[in-house]
Amino acid sequence: MAVVTSRGVCRAVGLAICLVLAVADVWAASPSSKQAGEELEFGYKAARRGYWQEALERFELANELTPNQPRILNNIAVALEANGRFDEARTTYQAALALAPNDSRMRTNFQRFEEFYATYVAPPEEDGDEPEADRQAPSGDEGGP
User: Fold this and answer.
1) Which pLDDT score is estimated for 130?
2) Torsion of the alpha carbons at 63, 67, 73 and 79, rounded to the nearest 10
3) What CATH number belongs to 30-122?
4) Domain residues of the chain, as ranges?
């Protein structure tokens, strides 16, 4: 027969209290989490149909309900990018990666965005190597309008 010590009883009671508090936190957070999940699902559906502004609004609402979730921030960044709000997208991708630096999917999304941004969005660096003809004003002798 096992002997129950007061120390063992205290540990068991303490563990039980911790579990009850953890479950209570989940139950308390459940309405927000559930609503955030619904908003995310709606946002995914909107994005698949190409309704990126609607998707962005849904993802932002999910972020308000459950702030600082890296996956939600990643979704916001993708929607911002799709809406042409590139500077905001870049900042949001960086925020998501700061929260989950080892997430390979987010890192891939950000790397693809950076490549696109550097190639198509960022202003070209002026290094003085542009052709001479591009620097001269038109002479007006081309016979154009």
Assistant:
1) 52
2) 10
3) 1.25.40.10
4) 30-122
